[in-house]
Amino acid sequence: MKGLESLDWVVIGGYFVVLLGIAYWVIKQKNRNTEDYFLAGRNIGWFVVGASIFASNIGSEHVVGLAGAGAGDKIPMLIYELHAWLVLMLGWVFLPFYARSGVFTMPEFLEIRFNSNARWFLSIFSLAAYIMTKISVTIYAGGIVVSTLLGISFWVGALTTVVLTGVYTVLGGMKAVVYTETLQTIILIFGASVLTFMGLDAVGGWSALKAEVTPQYLNMWRPPSDPDFPWPSLVLSSTVVGIWYWCTDQYIVQRALTARNITQGRRGTIFAGLLKLLPIFLFLIPGIVALALKQQGKLDWDTPDQAFPSLMMNLLPVGLRGLVAAGLMAALMSSLASVFNSCSTIFTVDIYKKIYPHTEEKKLLTIGRIATIVVVILGILWIPIMQNISGVLYEYLQSVQSYIAPPITAVFLLGIFFSRINSSGAMATLLSGLLIAVIRLVCELNLNAFNPDSWAYWFGEMNFLSFSTYFFLVCVIIAIVVSLATAPPDVKKLSGLTFATTSVEDRLANKKSYSRWDVLASVLVLVIVIGIMIVFNGRI
Questions:
Q1: CB–CB of 185/361 below 8 Å?
Q2: Is the pLDDT of residue 37 over 70?
């Protein structure tokens, strides 16, 4: 594998100079209150909202992992990249309810809809999940990527990136995060686009690529009997996970809440939906190209996860190599900045302010910065643990969202669309969901200790996609049964929080918040999604 040369380093250095310049400009503007610090003053336009949502989603492990899926016969995983329609759902369905409630966080919305216990549960659960999954996996994968690209040690790469990202996140808050993410989105898209076009050219074009890997390799629809990716479970499970991630998770929704109004927020999600379709072309296809070039004897790599960096370092000319390397670091930093700020927001607004409700705004800003610093430190302390995690457990971290999502998705969906769901039903679903997820993980991680004929072995061995689908159905049943068996919620308190209790005035205001162009752009996204599903059917 070739190394970076002087011009590459100049390009990387230029990227960091511009990045720090933007961060410095934002920091100089100062944050006057918590709305400024956590939601950028709720004054962000659609372009920055959309770019921020996209950049938050794309981390270095996402880039390398998606290319690895393309190179490692895991094409069905691209269904998670077709969640553009769920990003639209955030803007068209969920955002109006969130905006009307005036909340900062998703746990805060659960308290308004149900009770404080639901808020406490989601706050603590989200913080633990972020630190143990999002932060740890991003730092671990990012440290490997940076050390490989720059030829430095894992620790130097990981620590430098984490500390640098932490500094501008702590000082600038959400405003620094969204504006730097806009730059990072542009660099990542441009650099990866160049690699895709040059890769397709090197392999002989799309037709030559299909002939090399065979059309059947490009089929994302596996039969229901497939042990790894049965298509019914894949579609249902990915939808459940997608609704949780794109429509209810603080990590993503916080970006939409920064918009200056519902119109800008919705347009931001439409723009993000269009951007969300790009990873298929920017990362998945380069992985397939790397496989084809390997089969042609033009490229060599050992594992699928090495496909993207190997293609990049061997195919791109000097200078462009540095630009794509900067794009990969941008992906890492944007994901880290997003999760740092989300953790800080949840701790300050949902935990500290809940315990000390009369705290002054100035002190809350200080608490927010301290919380970010603590999260950065916890992320660094988690690195040695991540280094010792086996490949099997690392894969588990990728599928763990299939265990997190079902109860939260059930509570939010039913909470908005079924007014009869009460706090008892919501808490029963969240608590039982946590218990079921823990039992599943224990069974899965200790599979060899159980008798193959036992229920524990069956429960732990079940395909994670099928498990997630049944798990969601169980959560819905629990929420409905418990709610119907207990007293109904106070309808007056639900005003504007559910579909049935939304006033005529609010519906008219919502209707005025979009134009025919918003509708047409959304339809375009849906048409592209359907088109990609048809193309990747092994026949075209």
A1: no
A2: no
